[in-house]
Amino acid sequence: MAETLLEVAHLIKAYPARGKGQKVQAVADASLTLARGETLGLVGESGCGKSTLSRLILSLVAADQGAVRIAGADFLGASREEQRLMRRRIQIVFQDALSSLNPRMTVGVNIAEPMRLQGLGTQASRRQEARQLLALVGLRAEDEDRYPHEFSGGQCQRIAIARALVLKPDIVIFDEAVSALDVSIRAQILRLILDLQQKFGLSYIFISHDLSVVKRICDRIAVMYLGRIVEIGSSDAVCGSPRHPYTEALLRAIPIADPRRMRVENLGLIEGDTVAAAGPSGGCAFEPRCPHRFARCGLSVPPLFDIAAGHRAACFLNETDRQQGDP
Amino acid sequence: MTDGSDITLEVKNLTTRFGSAKTGVTVVDGVSFSLKRGRTTALVGESGCGKSATALSVMQLLEPPGEVIAGEVRLGGVDLMRLGDAEMAEVRGRRIGMVFQDPMTSLNPLLPIGDQIAETLTAHTDLSRHEAKQRAVDLLTRVGVADAGRRVHDYPHHFSGGMRQRVLIAAAISCSPEIIIADEPTTALDVTVQAKILRLLYDLQQAMHASLLLITHDLGVVAAMADEVIVMYAGRIVERADVDTLFHRPRHPYTKALLACVEGISDRAAALEPIQGMAPDLKDPPPGCRFAPRCPSVRDVCRRQDPRLAPYSARHDVACLLVGEEAANG
Q1: Beta bridge partners of A88
Q2: Residue extents of the structural domains in chain A
Q3: CATH class of the domain whose range is A4-239
Q4: For chain B, how many helices (H) and strands (E)?
Q5: Which residues of B touch A185 (CB under 8 A)?
Q6: What are the tens digits of pLDDT across the range A165-176?
Q7: Farthest CA pair distance, chain A
Q8: Percentage of residues in chain A with pLDDT exceeding 70?
């Protein structure tokens, strides 16, 4: 097994909600690991906490509890100076590349900016670095003097990727980085992301609401629902034999681009929506919508049960299985 | 042919330009198609291919400087392009219902949703305000809004994205239109919500025996919903066929490339083969075939000669010189 590069343990973040003393758990007890060279997909629908989790990991938002370790070293608990240095190892690419770039800086300066902020290199060496990165992400080195608005959405995403790589990180988090792109451009950016991973042995966390994209490029997948990771495992296991009813529902709701395999009548439909479901807690968050719910589900929150090596799901159905399966 | 009587809307040589003849951009370039009763036609393509501009042109909802400069849109023997504003307003809502991507901008934030649906009804029917409001409750129930009697008094912001889309669909079908035009109706929604909205659109279309023109960039949605598919690229139709033919025997290199980008028929994770480059700038389209600069099978002739949309087989049209050659050679 490859070395564990990132370890996220029991992260919790709650925000105050409407009503006195009310809180909403944006991220509830999230734990995961990321090995070197691996891609972990983080999927779920709007408001499931996947973006909040990425910001907690990056320490862009302060966690209420929990730990993040990068190559074994405590990141969240590190001093400001240590944290600044550790940031070089973990970078993020956002969905809206254009607004994540500084419109008043040329793309060359944009790409080199993290180096400047980290006090690395000279102006000339940073410029050289930016030119090389532009070529690496499929743009021309001469583009360095142009401004972000002169580029298309796909090209801006290439620039944002170049900027994320300028500090030579070990880990890159892509937060819906291809979601706003057209099909053909999305395929180009995914190809680029995969090629860069091969080249530099990068580890990725790929956040998306689009399970069909995640399925294609990730080694492992974590499915989130209302702040919790409800299932995690290899892509094949999670997509091939899902063990949480929410994962199953998500998979069945995705229209497949083949009319012989999927027509509208076969789309899986589940009751309710996440907004209405954020009701009284104490039980499984998916219980109000779950087609398989039973008495137990409303009483306590199911922990992640081990199903097979590396495959875990937070559903009581798996507990029964386990009891029947191996004593 | 029995087909003729089944046609609800016929679009011929529709051409839409933004800006003047000299400096303008032709975003829809000689597009022709027809919709059939009880059938779903998907208009698919990437940003800027002209699919939404086609729908807005049909509805005459283009914002200046957009302008339809040529073409006919025939609805029951009448060319909509010749109608005045008042007559066209009568067609919209009553004979053609519309559903757009962002329900928040289509709904008036200051008006309870029941009033908004009732407004469409009083504008197009003889119903009194009171009857129209009662009808709004029925319609909301029909599109799956629970407790509609109470919810008609709620404002758009009280609804989730999926529920707002249901409200919009209720308004669109309020006058039992022959045609429903849905432009990216589920693009902003989560997949589990999308599944429900697609199912609702399908059920309503079947029950009403209406024509559905579904505009989308999502090939999964196309595969699930469409009977016929029209693929657009750079303002033109490049391929048109029934859904099974289009997905399993696509002929145009662009259609093939698009299908190779998504999971579906080709479940090939390793073979993620993107199309190179990007769609042409329509201010200065390339000579010859507009897909030529990106086409993996391009030949010299493609850069000179402009391919016309031509029959490849019965009910399968393709605009590609190479495919034309192939067909001619048997």
Answers
A1: none
A2: 4-239
A3: alpha beta
A4: 13, 12
A5: 46, 274, 278
A6: 999 999 999 999
A7: 67
A8: 94
